[in-house]
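FIELD: query
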Amino acid sequence: MPTPRIVRKRAEMRDLIVTNRALGRRIGFIPTMGSLHLGHTSLIDRAASECDDVVTSIFVNPIQFGPNEDYEKYPRDLHADVHLLSQHGVRWVFAPDVQEMFPPGDSTRVEVSGPAKPYEGTLRPSHFSGVATIVLRLLQSAPAHNIYFGAKDWQQILVIRQMVRDLGIDIEVVTCPTVRDQDGLAMSSRNAYLSATERKRALVIYSSLRQAEKLWCSGVAINRIEQELKKMLSAQEIQIEYADIVDAKSLLKMHKNNPNASVIILIACRVGSTRLIDNLLLPSQTLSSC
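FIELD: result
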């Protein structure tokens, strides 16, 4: 497959997309911060199956990182990323520098509320404003038909969907399943921070989710499921930030099963100094689903 074209300027990227849309080509867009893995390529492959052309952005967004987070050490290897993308049929790689996306004097941010308020919004107050701002600017630069996200970032997807609705952005937000290693650990660029011992401990995140699912299907009360979930995580010296069963659309805490609600378990925790998130959508509590 040909090497994708690297585009550095917003205006050039937009012109390429607009020109190809005018030719009747359907465009799929996958925004990333680089350090690509199989989770990213699964999104790319989904986009390639649904669209004529695929554009991937690689941009480590400084305004979604809070104080003392890992912006400076976040893994960056554009050459390796482009090589990987060339194997998956990506046509364009949009790789602007910080000054291109946030020119000197830049002062405008997207204010977000609703699904952005709880959980990550409480723990990382400026995070989703930074995410929404960069996604909006990326969509202005690459006005595709579809944008693809992995389900691991569940709350982020809700925030982006809300922004797209509220601002009337003409794009379809596509959610794809979380991709996991064979041992069950959800794919994440931050997994590279884990030592061998920490990675082994981190496997309890997925096993605790699956155990919680079994308890859910057995009709165990939600507060008891959450207690068991946290007990399993704590036994492996995992520092829990949250491990809750919530409504998958509103993110409101669930206290008892509502058969009309979509329900998800959300986890954020630290394994050593590495922060990881994961989730699992729960089936309806019926014999056919569980």
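FIELD: remark
The chain has ten helices and nine strands.
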